[in-house]
Every structure is written in structure tokens, then in C-alpha cells.
Design goal:
2 copies of one chain form a homodimer.
Chain A lengths: L6 H9 L14 E10 H13 L6 E4 L23 E5 L2 E6 L10 E7 L2 H9 L5 H4 L6 E7 L9 E10 L3 H9 L10 E2 L25 E7 L2 H9 L4 E5 L5 E6 L7
Antiparallel strand pairs in A: 1-5, 1-10, 1-11, 2-5, 3-4, 3-10, 6-7, 7-9, 8-9
Chain lengths: 261, 261
Amino acid sequence: MRSDSRPVDVRELIRKGEIEGPTSGMCLGYVQANLVVLSKDMAYDFLLFCQRNPKPCPLLDVTEVGSPEPKIIAPGADLRYELSRYRIYKNGELVGEVGDIAGYWREDSIAFLLGCSFTFEGSLMRSGIPMRHIEEGHNVPMYITDIECYPSGTFSGPMVVSMRPVLEEMVVKAVQITSKFPRVHGAPIHIGNPEGIGIVDLNRPDFGEPVTVKRGEIPLFWACGVTTQVIALRAKPEIMMTHSPGHMFISDILNEEYSLL
Amino acid sequence: MRSDSRPVDVRELIRKGEIEGPTSGMCLGYVQANLVVLSKDMAYDFLLFCQRNPKPCPLLDVTEVGSPEPKIIAPGADLRYELSRYRIYKNGELVGEVGDIAGYWREDSIAFLLGCSFTFEGSLMRSGIPMRHIEEGHNVPMYITDIECYPSGTFSGPMVVSMRPVLEEMVVKAVQITSKFPRVHGAPIHIGNPEGIGIVDLNRPDFGEPVTVKRGEIPLFWACGVTTQVIALRAKPEIMMTHSPGHMFISDILNEEYSLL
């Protein structure tokens, strides 16, 4: 039932506490987004970091100072209540997981919403390219690479990538399909040899769980929104709020709109 | 000779005052960029304006506070000297045109470089779609539309578009080619009827010169970088510097790099 629900209805259920779990599979066809909330004093450097690193950090919306409403991707929504689980960080340390962030929101808070690769996974699967992590029922494996992002102010560090194994004969198609979604990470940043981007062991991801890579399959690596969290935590902001992994913000924008250039 | 010169050599000649004219036709194949210099206090709102309006305002590079070096698109270059002509605005009024901006540059100056449609005109012409304004030997016609940009802080106002007439049977190809360049305005924002976007008379552009639209041709409208100048001037910044029309910054980036997603 929830897979074909409208985003506004699912967000209302989340707000009422009637949905508490991850959002994977909900409101199929609608863009889900990563959330990062910072205070105004860090906002310029973070905004510029995203502008300089559009593949890992594809910005979809930025709220007005103090406003929790994402006017572009979900007018009327309230980011303080309409995600099912949040993480609170103080000075770079995780201090808690909460169901809403009303108590932490400040007059100088700004929310940044970033594209998520959920958006292109549907297109890949409909084109006959299976997602191994979905088949195996867990989160996608993510790795810290040796590719340095362009720094901005206090924000600097390595790019994080997600990995999906793809049959040799489907690699070109996977590049073509994801190239059509530049606002949700776009084409892979690397194909094949993990060591080429500083990944020592595919079986030991830095985030998420490892997946089976079968004979005849090539690992494909896409820039990943978790980059933002790694970078932001290195900058040790006094306070930062994010979604909890898998508990994304469901927007009113259809995936197809982000395949337009 | 200058059409196949390296950007670094042409910039050196500009710096020495040996080139003073417009840059159209120079260093073919390299991206040329619009320049807007603002002070730090306006930078966050302007950066967010560009993020919210990527079609008219495709940001290619933003310098560090006080630094005139565009590290991403031309490392080592100095934006104070390496454009052939600049405009100086105070409180929204044009106060002069100068050959360098060293005397106006401040410790809190930030330079923004934005994509320019010169980049896709070469691809259109090589595909057999002639550029009427080039045939007629003058600037492209530009119009203020009734399409409102997403505002950001003090920055708000209408989108400016450039117009190129295209033969009916080439319209699809023109959309396809320019779609491949999302970082230099991308696909047209409107095809056909000028009144549909608030343009009353094609023969009276707000900037540039009118072009002949022949029988069997359709006017195609692309978001235009002049939007930034119109918007910035409405915000009446204490000081703003820009390139003079046609006197663009020539970067070290090949056009082809901006056709990758």
C-alpha cells in the first residue's frame, strides 16, 4: 500500500509516529533525499562545498534561514517532523537518535537536501540490471576512497562511493542510464579495479554491508551522499542534524523530473 | 592565429594590454565564462540564487574570499587582469568600464564564474544549425521574460533568455545537442510563441541586437547568463564588477568536459 502512496500522505503518517522504519520502497517514483542541517555560520562554506563537488553532493533544495520548509521539493512540508528518524551530532560526535528535531532546531538552522541514488536504482532494475544489495536484503556497501573532494573552508576530505556489481555485458547500459540522472549522482565515477580508487577490500565496506560479486560481474562505483556526512563531521560543527541511514526525506518530485537537463 | 591559441597565452596577451577586444572566436574549443564579483556579505545569497536557478546561472567556479584565482577552471590565472574589459557598478549604477580591476578588488571580494552559451554554439554549427547572429555579425538578441526566478535573499527577478531561430526540421536536433550541456544553460526553456514567456516583440530585444527569423524557422529560447547581472543590479550591491558584454573569461576547460554528466 505504501509503495503507491502519495508522499504527502506518508509524511503525515511519519509526523504522527505511525511510520517509524526506513523509507526504502515507499512512494515509488518519487525522489528521496539526504538531509543535513547546519547553522548559518557554516552554511556558505557547505553550500560552496556542494557546488564544487556536485557528483557526491547534488543539492536539490536549501531552506531559508530558520525555516524548516523545503519550498522547492516539497512545499508545505516540515523537515523537523517529517522524517522517521534523525541523528544529532555535537562537535562531530553522535549524541543521539530521535524521532523529531523540533527541540534541536534553531533560529539560525538551515536544511540542505541532497539527491540519493535510490532514484536511479528503479531505472536500473526496470532495465534488467538487478541490485544485489536489494536481492540480499540489506543496505548498499559504501567505501571511503582516496579521491579528495575540492575543499571549501573547513570542509574537506575524501569522496565516499557506493558499489553495485553489474554483469560485464550490462556495464555500458548502466553508465548510460545513470548518466541521465546528474542531479542524483549521475554516471559512475569508476568501473572495475577497486584499488584504482584506494579501496583495499570490497568485503569490508566502511558503511553498509558487503554484497556478493559473482563471476562475470564488474564492480561499479558511484559518488555517494554519505560523503557529505563524513566531510561535515570532520569539520566538527557545534551542532549538526541528519537523517538516520535509510530514513530519507520523501519529496513531491517525480524521479523523471531529475532525468531532465 | 588566436582561434587556435592556448587560453594561457591569450590571457597573457590580455594582461599585457595587447588584446583589448571581445573574445568571441578565440581559443576555439575552450569554455568562456561570465564574471560577477561581489563582496562576502552578499556571497551566500548569490551562491544560493545560482543553486536555485541552475539554468540561467550555471556556476563553474567560485574563488576563495579575497583570492582572484579561479582554481578549478584556470589554476594560476588572475581574474583582476585577465579579461579584456570590465564593468564597475556601485549601488546598482554603472560607473565605468576599465581594463583591469586591481584598484577595485577588495579583501572581501569573491568572483563567480558562470557558463556561457558560446560553448554549445560551436556544437550546433558543426551539426548544421547556423547561428543567425553570427551570420549577421552582431551579438545574440536577449529578452527579459515573465518567468520569475526562485528568489534568494535580496536577489530576485525575471529570467533573461537568448533567442536563436532554428529551421523547423532541426528543432529536435537543437534540443538534443544543447541538452548535453547542462552546465552551460542546457536545453531551451521555450520553443516557439514568444508571448508564451512574456516577450512582446522579437524585433525589440532588451539586450543585444535583433536577428532575422526566416520563413520555416522557429524561435528557440535558452536561459541566459545576463539573468545574473539583471538580478544582481536589482539587489543594488555597494560594489559589483562584471566582464563587459562579449569580453569573457577564457578558461582552461575544454567544451567537451562540460558535455559529461
